[in-house]
Amino acid sequence: MDLQAPRVVLGMLILGPVWLWPVSATSLERSYYEPPAHFAAVEPDRVVKLQFNLSHQLIRQLPFYFSYTMRGFWDRSGRTKSNPFIDINHHPELQWIFSPRHIFSFEHASNGVDNEPSGPEQRANQSRSVNRFYWQSFWKVPGLSKLWFAPRVDAPIVTKNSTRIHDYIGYASSILEWREDGHVTGYLRYSRGAKGHQFIAQATLDPLGLLDSRHPGNTRLFVEYFNGYGDYLVDFDKKRDVMRVGLRLLQ
């Protein structure tokens, strides 16, 4: 079954304004302390990164959550009009937040395709998936009340795909978060594997909050720099060096 057509329709409905406007909506990497947000970011080579997040507590008064993140990469260059998505990645996960500072989670990451030819270049053998457990904790940096250190350790279930992917993106991440009024406004993440690394730097700015700090808006200006591997699953073994600009929409 060809699933690309529904994806194209969905992408056009969500991202239609992005085609006309060079700066679109975007968000930080998802954090437990960050509320769900929807976004897309424009790159210089006219690739749009779309992200959608949601999180739901499964049982009231118990710290178990279901979270879902979708990341789509849409080629705006016009090189192909029938199948413009380079890759669409799905990240459902079950989280146990066993204290305000610790998360244990099981995550499935995949791009939801088979190995038939698909994508802008009609490439075959594009199926990618990984199942992993991870643990993440959050600690205030002494003397800097707004700076948090949030290390994360991944333990993938051993398969050929998962081992290859984590060899490029690493098994542990060092993360720094700068928080303002309950929101992550600055973010640095670095990880290294046997064959590659991943570095992400992100920053946001509330333009309405600058005008009136008593009435902050739900829109953030956004800049992201990505360097390394694993930006999207289908080409996890290809190094990317890219700057993205956009807006972040909070719920």
Automatic annotation (TrEMBL):
Its cofactor is Ca(2+). One of its GO terms (cellular component) is cell outer membrane. GO terms for molecular function: metal ion binding; phospholipase A1 activity; phospholipase A2 activity. Belongs to the phospholipase A1 family. This is Phosphatidylcholine 1-acylhydrolase. It is a multi-pass membrane protein. Its EC number is 3.1.1.32, 3.1.1.4. Homodimer; dimerization is reversible, and the dimeric form is the active one. GO terms for biological process: lipid catabolic process. It is an enzyme of class 3 (hydrolase). It catalyses: a 1,2-diacyl-sn-glycero-3-phosphocholine + H2O = a 2-acyl-sn-glycero-3-phosphocholine + a fatty acid + H(+); a 1,2-diacyl-sn-glycero-3-phosphocholine + H2O = a 1-acyl-sn-glycero-3-phosphocholine + a fatty acid + H(+). It is found in: Cell outer membrane. The keyword Metal-binding applies. Keywords: Calcium, Cell outer membrane, Hydrolase, Lipid degradation, Lipid metabolism, Membrane, Metal-binding, Signal, Transmembrane, Transmembrane beta strand. Its main location: membrane. The keyword NADP does not apply. It comes from the Bacteria. It holds the Pfam family PLA1.
